[in-house]
């Protein structure tokens, strides 16, 4: 029979770069395309011991239905960490555990946006967020990102020009895909503009704990006194991505609506791993573990940049991130979709910039490289192969 | 600041019976209000051993990002079980792993329904599904359930009277909340009516494996040759509810759209527990374990009914379910919201029928009792207390 779909999802298709991701199953392919944390970053032995204890001591709590809001001790630990490390937490704030950071983005959109409402986001931005916004048939307006973050003039123009702007979506720290960090001046300015035009901000900070160079900057949420900023993050990059445990923090009134909507979405997040994360923090703390991840990524990023410095043509520009997982490479000219195809023919996977454009199909002369997952050997070989393709690429 | 919400979620509120559920935290309260599987039904030791093996042998696969479709070996096992036990599986069918059965219902609604579209469901029906439908601002039309399932005359009237009916939502086996099983004649008739009016069916079968009396009946999906039926279920009632692993099976074209929408919802379901469920099936199989759950529930249901037979006034009617988790009690008159309040004052929790009405706030002279979670002692004491309240209730 013939099927018809809802307007909001009708135009949604599997990713245009699906072929690239399919090719990753081929072990000969060197992948710089992932957004995965390093497998070396998983504290397997510690998690194994905690899991055993949970099965021994509290199996019923860990296997039975639980509350939608999330595991109370974990919420308390998250709130303490948000307070200590990010100065986040007003009296009116509440935190809900989500099934990964992604669910926080999805539910926020569902709670705030009617079809046709506008969301302003960085251009480029995180594909998972852009597609979540699209799945509610919202109007996406991208604002270009500069070396120190979003272009403020264009942001104000976008706020002026668009009706029904519901929120600004921003990843201020080690942005995906660009690796760029928004400066303090721009963080303040974005909040001021949100106040001036009375829109909310969804601040996404999955990489905020992964700074391996430079100075910490305050989160936008920490400067918010009105409850204008929703803040989402997750344990995906600091403990385990596969367990799908994230969180969303914001004004109680907003979070309580998110709770109602999460309840009909998946009832609650896997409770066993909420308890596991909580015990991990309780027994081992996160600081030492995160320090080891930062050291690993510092080395990997530095090593990859050194290979790129050596091999890439000087007309090719790229970011030098102070944390996170990504380097953003910009060609002098041309569309990188073709370049990504050539790369995959040579068994190197990269993600072309068009993937991250709020306007679908927009050309981009940039592409994203991930440094957290490939081995040093793969970095040497992959950057060498890639340099031969891009140094000769005419676009 | 003041917040405005999307039209679709604006009217959604925390459950009206929240106070009842809050009271469950009080250990003095005997709860017949849950929808939980018995804690005795969790195969803790076996799950513990498998978890240990996963941490030992495949930690990276279990902690890293995974594919949205779900863990391939588990999908294969589910499809084999659906084929063997439920005669489900056409060439065009595919199965996606969902974060509990609830997510299958939510994503199906998102994929198929625009705001204002109509969903026809049983009256009463599962509150989690009704609220998922409401969260997309759909028009809910309830059709009364009789002893042998949905009233066919009213179903056809509803199909005739409503424009844009997208699907019929039905729980044909051990329905929640009524415990009623739709007869074979009515299953065939529902499918015929769906064909006649060209609407889809979402068949929800979370309790289908839990028959402890009577004869198995074919699923509606097994009679479908056109790809008209989507079928959702989960491991919540047969392995663990807290792990949030369910599945949705239907025509490839529908499932592939669901995959795209799930990707932006939570990327994928907790992969560790998908692998754990798969290993459980591989090593131990599900049949022996499910047989023990059925034996347990048969005893519990029988024991509760015997207490009710002894203590309840003869004018009070109730279902005698052949499986599942629930008994549905109908008073000669009156609204059971008051009755539930009186019960909770006497430290017994039940769920009043209005909770399960597709039309919100509709009065109901029925209420739901759960027999899977209370102990035998609690059943004796709780039914005794409850009988004193309901035998004297004037409504």
Describe, in short, the structure shown.
The structure is a homodimer of 395-residue chains. Chain A is of the alpha/beta class and 395 residues long. Chain A is 43% helix and 16% strand.
Describe this protein's structure:
Two copies of one chain form a homodimer. Chain A contains 15 helices and 14 strands. Helix content of chain A is 43%, strand content 16%. Chain A folds into two domains: 10-42 and 288-390, Aspartate Aminotransferase, domain 1 (Alpha-Beta Complex); 45-283, Aspartate Aminotransferase, domain 2, CATH 3.40.640. In chain A, the strands form three sheets. Chain A has an eight-stranded mixed β-sheet with strand order 2-9-8-7-6-3-4-5, with helices on both faces. The model of chain A has no long low-confidence stretch (mean pLDDT 95). Chain A is α/β, with parallel strands linked by helices. At the A-B interface, α1, α3, α4, α6 and α7 of A face α1, α3, α4, α6 and α7 of B.
């Amino acid at each position: 029979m013939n099927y018809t779909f809802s307007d909001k999802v009708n135009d949604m298709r599997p990713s245009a770069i699906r072929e690239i991701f399919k090719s990753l199953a081929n072990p000969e392919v060197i992948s710089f395309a992932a957004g995965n944390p390093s497998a070396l970053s998983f504290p397997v032995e510690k998690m194994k011991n905690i899991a055993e204890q949970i099965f021994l001591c509290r199996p019923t709590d860990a296997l039975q239905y639980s509350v939608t809001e999330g595991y109370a001790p974990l919420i308390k630990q998250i709130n303490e960490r948000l307070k200590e490390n990010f100065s986040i937490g007003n009296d009116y704030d509440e935190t809900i555990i989500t099934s990964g950071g992604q669910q926080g983005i999805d539910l926020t959109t569902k709670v705030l946006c009617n079809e046709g409402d506008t969301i302003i986001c960085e251009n480029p931005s995180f594909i998972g967020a852009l597609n979540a916004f699209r799945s509610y048939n919202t109007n996406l307006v991208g604002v270009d990102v500069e070396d120190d973050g979003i272009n403020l003039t264009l942001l104000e123009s976008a706020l002026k020009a668009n009706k029904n702007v519901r929120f600004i979506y921003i990843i201020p720290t080690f942005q995906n895909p660009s690796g760029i960090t928004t400066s303090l001046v721009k963080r303040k300015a974005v909040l001021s503009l949100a106040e001036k035009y009375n829109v909310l901000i969804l601040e996404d900070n999955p990489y905020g704990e992964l700074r391996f160079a430079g100075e910490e900057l305050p989160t936008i949420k920490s400067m918010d006194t009105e409850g204008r900023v929703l803040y989402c993050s997750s344990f995906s990059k600091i403990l385990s991505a596969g367990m799908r445990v994230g969180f969303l923090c914001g004004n109680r009134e907003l979070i309580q609506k998110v709770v109602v909507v999460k309840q009909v979405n998946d009832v609650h997040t896997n409770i066993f791993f909420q308890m596991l994360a909580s015990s991990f923090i309780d027994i081992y703390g996160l600081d030492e573990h995160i320090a080891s991840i930062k050291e690993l990524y510092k080395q990997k990023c530095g090593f990859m940049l050194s290979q790129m410095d050596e091999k890439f043509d000087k007309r090719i520009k790229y970011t030098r991130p102070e944390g996170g997982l990504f380097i953003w490479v910009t060609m002098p000219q041309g569309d990188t979709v073709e370049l990504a195809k050539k790369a995959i023919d040579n068994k190197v996977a990269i993600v072309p910039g068009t993937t991250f454009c709020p306007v679908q199909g927009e050309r981009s002369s940039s592409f994203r490289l991930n440094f957290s997952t490939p081995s040093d050997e793969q970095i040497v070989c992959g950057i060498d192969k890639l340099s031969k393709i891009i140094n000769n690429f005419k676009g």
